[in-house]
Amino acid sequence: MKYLIVSDIHGSLPALEKVLAFYREQQCDLLCILGDILNYGPRNGLPEGLDPKGIAERLNAMAGEIVAIRGNCDSEVDQMLLDFPILSDYTLVVDNGKRLFLTHGHIYNEEKRPKAVTDCFFYGHTHLWKLERQANGVVCNTGSVTFPKGGNIPTFATYENGTVTVYRLDGEPLASLTLDK
């Protein structure tokens, strides 16, 4: 299976539409959303193309292809608009024996990893993309497609056959790592 992993959409419909175009073009099988879907949050400005209802419509149309995690800006009110669950703090996906831990990053993060043994730890929250091999597996922060920080550009990631790739929002790859050393 091919997974597209995205975090911190923060209500930007134009950003989501670019992600979904890549998802379709690359024939991905599952969209993994690591939180902060509809709400832009009190510390951010208004995103370009703020349209929470439009985002809900686009995502609800493909609800069967989505696994989503709660971010610090997501709430029960957001869940009422969405036809797929978003209120879990994490999920563990097992793909061909590889354990992928998916979380937003405000509870579990690089400094506070879960006790679960994982091959890849995916998170967002900081809006700073990262992809590196560590002693306890590969770590991937997918960054943000709407509010990248630290001078970064908007980013998301994919996972397929043991390989994690981080992409710019325009679909150009930035970095890639295989889970096997």
UniProtKB/TrEMBL annotation:
Its cofactor is a divalent metal cation. Keywords: Metal-binding. Pfam families: Metallophos_2. The keyword ATP-binding does not apply. The keyword Metal-binding applies. Residues 1-160 form the Calcineurin-like phosphoesterase domain. It is an enzyme of class 3 (hydrolase). GO terms for cellular component: cytoplasm. Coiled coil: none annotated. Belongs to the metallophosphoesterase superfamily. YfcE family. This is Phosphoesterase. The lineage of its organism: Bacteria, Pseudomonadati, Bacteroidota, Bacteroidia, Bacteroidales.
